[in-house]
Amino acid sequence: MIAQVFGAAFGLLAVVFGAFGAHALKRRFTDEQLQSFETGVKYQMYHAIVLIVVGQLCEETATFYQAFTVLFIVGTFLFSFSIYGLCLSAAFGNKLRFLGPVTPLGGLLLVGGWMLLLYQFVMAL
């Protein structure tokens, strides 16, 4: 259930942030910032969908489910939200540089979640 809750919340926020970026921030962002912001939104939505689907198909008590859920929730938060923070802070004149190393850490957690998902599928063959 926790995967579906976070998946739905991430999906909702991805739509809100995507619209916000495309309309409210379009004039404020450079092309590079807009592209980075959109990358954060896309990755957030991809992982929202995966959390909902796999969360629906798996037993909540399974170790796989718990590990997968944590990796994708924390990874999505670190990856996408650090991109949002970097873009917004740069657009408003005070770039939060400490967020730079957070993005790849989030990406690494997402890769770990995908590796775990692949492992689970291969073991089910």
From TrEMBL:
Membrane-related topology note: Multi-pass membrane protein
Keywords: Membrane, Transmembrane, Transmembrane helix
Classification via Pfam families: DUF423
Membrane listed as a keyword: yes
Transmembrane annotation, as ranges: 70-92, 98-119
Cellular compartments annotated: Membrane
UniProt record similarity statement: Belongs to the UPF0382 family.
PANTHER family (UniProt xref): TRANSMEMBRANE PROTEIN 256
Protein's UniProt name: Uncharacterized membrane protein YgdD, TMEM256/DUF423 family
Organism: Olivibacter domesticus
